[in-house]
Amino acid sequence: MDFSYILGILTLAGINLIAVLGLSLLTGFTGLFSFGHAGFMLIGAYVGVWFNQPAGGSPAGLGLPFLVGLVAGAVASGLMAWIIGKITLRLKGDYFCIATLGFGEAIRLVFDNFQGFGGSRGWPLTITPGPSMIWIILACDLVGVLFLANLIRSRHGRNMIAVREEELAAQIAGVNVVRYKMLSLIVSAVYAGVAGYLLANYLTFLQPKIFNLQKSTELTIIVIFGGLGSISGSVIGALVLTILPEMLRFFSIWRFVFYGAAVILIMVARPQGLMGGMELSPAGLRKARAARLARRAILAESEAGSNQGGRR
Amino acid sequence: MIQFLQQLINGLSLGSVYALMAVGYSLVYSIMNFSNFAHGGVIMLGAYFGFFAITALKLPFLPAFIVAILGTGLLAVIIERVAYKPLRDRKAPFLYFIISAMGASIFLENIVIATIGPTFKSYPPIFDFTPLQLGQIAVGRLDAIAFIVSAVSLTALVLFIERTRLGKAIQASSYNMKACTLMGVNTDLVVLVVFALGGILAGVAGVFFGMKYTVYPQIGNITLKSFIAAVFGGLGSLPGAVLGSLLLGVIETLVAGYLSSQYRDLIAFVILIGVLVLRPSGIMGKVAEDKA
Q1: Which residue in the set A97, A102, A112 is minimally distant from B273, CB to CB?
Q2: Most CB atoms closer than 10 Å: which of A228, A259, A272, B195?
């Protein structure tokens, strides 16, 4: 097996993971489904690349350092999320879904037609030599997971989970539902923007086509596959669903047939995903064990009750 | 002025293709309350069924057409049984249905690519395609037929839903399926009929699309436009779906003609976002306030 090939797949998995972590916050923990997150990746990629690319190139950039581009892309995605959120967050669940789909595609079409950034032909990037991509991505992955884990365990994270579980009750309990939905959207967009920027730099080529509806759908499928409300699920999901299609590459055109069938199968057979809301951490395993024991206790008690001949 | 009228006619003919697609889509939405993204795949297969019925089975047009639409009706029912019924029984949140639908559409598109192949196929000429002349404006013969077929199918559908007993059951189920089971309605049958009807309409759309353009596996992607048209006209309203489709077709063609063809797809999404922001229920949709 070619080492650089494996490295390449892991790099892609790492990039996908960043976007998936963001989407996991929005979908898994706040309960909002988005079919337009590729649009945020696109914004992060194009703005970041524009800041980073040398001024002499064609299309021309601003020639700022790599990290400045990263931050710029992240901020731009967050800003875009704020704008989109202002418009769409008041829509009911399925309409929000449609709206994100519309925005994702609209953003792509705008950049397809805007010749200043290369339009649909794309933007070949000049990469300044530096540390290898895999280290940058691993660092971002680590920061991403730690930040998300801390956010979830914080007051803000719990509020988001409350919104996911029962929006009306959360509102009555004093949670500012709109504010937390917006926060969740913005954070998830920032993650997606970073992922988009890194993807562009890894591919050394930027084209709106990369960030299409299919990409958005793939991200959502990974989040659901890993299990809504589970960070470790998203990590495992991103790894498995990036590596698996590559391993199945020798099936060539049949790959996506299996992919489509697999998606249906997951939805029908195990919709709670791989982890089913559990986490693969010491605290998570303890919670899972406690839940299992509690279930067993309840079952035993109800059986003991019925053994008494139905008398209470 | 003539140019404008010609563009208008072109827009209406595009719109009637969208309308055929959007009506089936809207029907399923109004009953099941979810967006059947697999509808596009069924349309695409309708085009292929018709194509093979004419070329391989050497059937004349009308029997081939019937074969195609029955085939898609059956396909839609199979998809429902495999991909949606288990979720329905489990009362899964509707978003899981959407994911399953996307999986189905990916599956359908790629199984055609893998088996039949991605090359474009053309229907052999069946009708005389010389356009009808209304003064200085040309109306494609096929477009006129598509428009008429849209109108007839829609009328038949509305009559079925309003006048027959099964139609009343379908209407009732769209309000509250659980209450319907209490009233003795066989909701499984209702769902089956709704999907079969949607599939038949998809087959009609597919065959006409294949005749007007070409037959290829990615036809399903056009459904996004018909989806926008259905939202524009009002999700859940069948006349709304037709109205939205015609308007979308006209707007798209006018924008392409007078501004630039680059903006054709973009204007569709701008309309979508505009509708969702300003009037999410669409032009003719029911404005429903959630009393929580």
Answers
A1: A102
A2: B195
